[in-house]
Automatic annotation (TrEMBL):
It catalyses: (sulfur carrier)-H + L-cysteine = (sulfur carrier)-SH + L-alanine. It comes from the Bacteria. SUPFAM superfamilies: PLP-dependent transferases, SirA-like. CDD domains: SirA_YedF_YeeD. This is Putative Cysteine desulfurase 1. Pfam families: Aminotran_5 (PF00266), TusA (PF01206). Belongs to the class-V pyridoxal-phosphate-dependent aminotransferase family. NifS/IscS subfamily. InterPro entries: Aminotrans_V_dom, PyrdxlP-dep_Trfase, PyrdxlP-dep_Trfase_major, PyrdxlP-dep_Trfase_small, TusA-like, TusA-like_sf.
Amino acid sequence: MVSAVEHSAVLHAAAAHERGGGTVTEVGVDRAGAVSAEAYGAALRPDTALACLQSANHEVGTEQPVAEVADGCRAAGVPLLVDAAQSLPWGRVDGDWSLLAASAHKWGGPAGVGLLVVRKGARFAPRGPVDERESGRAPGFENIPAIVAAAASLRAVRAEAAAEAGRLRELTERIRARVPGLVPDVEVVGDPVRRLPHLVTFSCLYVDGETLLHELDRAGFSVSSGSSCTSSTLTPSHVLKAMGVVSEGNVRVSLPFGADAAEVERFLDVLPGAVAGVREKLGAPVAPAAAGTLDELTVDALGERCPLPVIELAKALPRVRVGGTVTVLSDDEVAAVDIPAWCWTRKQEYVGPRERERGVAYVVRRLV
C-alpha cells in the first residue's frame, strides 16, 4: 500500500513489485495533500505485506497522520514504512511505525548516506547479495566516516531545529499570506497548518513554469517547480495531480537554515513583475469576465501545450452567457489535470471530458 503522493522512488518500487506479479493499493489524498487515517486503514487487506507513508510531502510540505495510520497498521498486523526524508531534520516521527527511512543530504549531511531504522520485532530481510556484516543486512564494508558525519550533522541540526522552525514558519507564513494579494490568480497549495516550517508552494494561472523559474533565477532566486511546463518533464507532478490542484506556473520555495526576512521581502517584491511579464508574453487574459451572449463555444487548442489550453479557455469563457458552455479541444495530457483544477479555482463547473478521434473535448459550464 502507498499513498498517491509518495516520493517517486517509493512509487517506482511499488510499480516494480506490480510488474513482478504483486498488487499495489494506492490511497488518495485530499486537496491539501493529506491522507485520511480512516481511509488508509479501510484500504488494508488481509494479504497486505507492507504499507508506506511519508511523514511529510516533499513538494507541498503537508504532514501526514503517521501516528494514527501506524496504529491502524499495527492492529492489522501490517508493517508501516515511513519516508521521513523531509521531516526528520525538524524532529522525531511519532507513532508505532515499523521502519523509517531518510537521507543525510536533507539535513546538510554527506550525500549518498541513507538511514534505515528497523524497529525491534519487525521482520526484515535484505534483497540482493549479503554477507556476514551487519547480521547479513548489508554487503561489503560500510563508509564509517560518512555515517558518523551523517549522525553528527543530524544532531547539530536538531539542536537548533525548534528555534529555527519557529522563525522559518513565520517567513513561509508571510509568503503564504501575501502572495495571493500581490499576484492575481494564484492558489497556495498544501495544508496551511499541518505542514513543514520551511516549505511553501503556490501555482500561478496562465504561466509557463519553465519561463517563470528562469525569470526568478535571473533575479537571484533558486526555486523549484512541480509544473508540467518545465524541461525536466512534460507531465504534471504526480503530487499536484493527486491533489487536484493547478500544476501550471507552480513555484516551490524551500527556505534554508539561516534564511532571513530581507530575502523573503525581496522575493515578494520581484515575484509580481516576473509573473506579469510571463503572462504578457503568453497573451494571458487581463480583463474581468463580461456578460457574454453565446450559448456555447468551441476552442481549438490542439497542438498547444500547457498553459495555453487553459489560457484559451479563460479568454473564451466571457463570450458565453452564464449557463453556457465552452468546449476546449486539446491533445495535451496536462489539460486533463489543469482544466478541472482551473474550474475549481475560478468557481466554474467542469462538465467533463469527451473522447475524440484526436485529443479530448473538455466541457466547461459558466456559473459566474
